[in-house]
Write a structure and sequence with these properties.
There is one protein chain. This protein has 4 domains: 14-56; 75-121; 151-320, Ribonuclease H-like superfamily/Ribonuclease H (Nucleotidyltransferase, domain 5), CATH 3.30.420; 328-359. The chain is of the alpha/beta class and 359 residues long. It is flat, with a radius of gyration of 37 Å. It has 15 helices and 5 strands.
Length: 359
């Protein structure tokens, strides 16, 4: 009958039902209770009684399933959806928009999923949004040297529980987290204050030229006059308005800091600072639950110290950003390679000497 061990499935063919009834009848004819025979075959007594009643009237097979849902769309509505596709498909490019377009034009009132299902039944595909022309990531300028304090990157991140935003400045080469400024705003003023603090932290106070900055903002020196000088540092950021603002541009130019912006909608161009925020919020999740601004500032300072001096950075070969920034990283990585070689040789020598002793 095509059955396996265990209870009989909820739905079986009439032939299977008749076979089970014959087995139960054979067992009861030899003194077995019908309920016991049914349980042994995996059929509940109620199902056996129901099958016997239906078998007497010749209706052992299941009834055919009922018709479709009463709220199924009408043929004229299906035709209206197809007409809507022909007229507006190239414009709206979305089944959701087409559904609302049908109501707006008073053509058909159906759900978004209904439009999608009708189009799929007809093998119609909406054009969708056109692919954007790929843009190549900008190379580093020729004057940039791959060493600490040559390329800095900065960005903002939000701490919503505290209703504060923090701007961080980071060295791309060494991954050293230089400074953080917590504020209620994210403007060019926060960028300037953060960079001034980062320059002090990095020992680059000689780049701070407030007289030139005042002259640029007063109009005595034009930005074109500063374009001829070779920058001494590159500042990388996204295309936020505070990064693109004239105030930030004047500040960077006065301090001989070049600017490079990532591609729009491409956060991987700022992967270093995005990684910093991801690790900080992922490894110190309590920061996002802090509601006191003063406590947030204190904890961020502690996390910054641990990040720079304790946490080993995988992309640096498992040294700290401070090790890389201050030139200790090569010696540490070299010492580990030497230690691995020596440890391997010691294991080999040990086992060889044990083998000689056993002989």
């Amino acid at each position: 009958m095509g059955l396996t061990a265990g209870p009989v499935p909820p739905r079986v063919d009439a032939e299977v039902k008749a076979g089970l009834l014959r087995l139960i009848g054979y067992a009861t004819a030899r003194g077995w209770p019908a309920a016991r025979a049914g349980r042994l075959l995996g059929v509940q007594p109620e199902r056996v009684r129901r099958w016997r009643h239906r078998a007497r009237s010749g209706r052992l097979g299941d009834h055919a399933r009922g018709g479709g849902a009463v709220h199924t769309i009408l043929p004229e509505e299906r035709a209206a959806i197809l007409a809507l596709y022909d007229v507006w498909g190239e414009v709206d490019k979305s089944h959701r928009k087409l559904a609302h377009r049908g109501s707006r034009e008073n053509l058909v009132h159906v759900s978004e999923s209904t439009v999608l299902r009708v189009l799929a039944d007809e093998h119609l595909i909406l054009p969708g949004k056109p692919a954007r022309e790929p843009r190549q990531r900008a190379d580093w300028p020729d004057w940039v040297a791959w060493k600490p304090n040559s390329i800095w990157i900065y960005d903002f991140t939000h701490f919503t529980a505290c209703d504060r935003v923090a701007v961080a400045v980071m060295d791309v080469v060494s991954r050293k987290w230089l400074t953080t400024l917590v504020s209620v705003e994210e403007t060019s003023l926060q960028v300037e204050v953060a960079f001034l603090d980062a320059l002090h932290v990095a020992g680059l106070e000689h780049l701070i030229d407030l007289d030139t900055l005042d002259a640029v903002r007063a109009g005595r020196i034009g930005l074109s006059d500063l374009d001829d000088q070779t920058p001494v540092m590159l500042a990388v950021s996204d295309n936020g308005p505070q990064m693109r603002s004239m105030s930030t541009r004047q500040f960077m130019a006065a301090f001989a800091i070049g600017q490079q912006f990532g591609r729009p909608s491409t956060p991987t161009d700022q992967a270093w600072i995005e990684s910093l925020f991801g690790h900080v919020k992922g490894e110190w999740p309590h920061l996002e639950a802090i509601r006191d601004p003063a406590q947030l500032i204190t904890d961020l300072q502690q996390v910054q110290t641990e990040y720079n001096t304790v946490r080993l950075h995988a992309s640096l070969g498992y040294v700290t950003p401070d090790d890389e920034h201050y030139g200790r990283a090569d010696a540490i990585r070299g010492a580990r390679r030497l230690g691995l070689q020596q440890a391997r040789q010691q294991r080999i020598d040990y086992r060889r000497s044990k083998k000689v002793q056993q002989q």
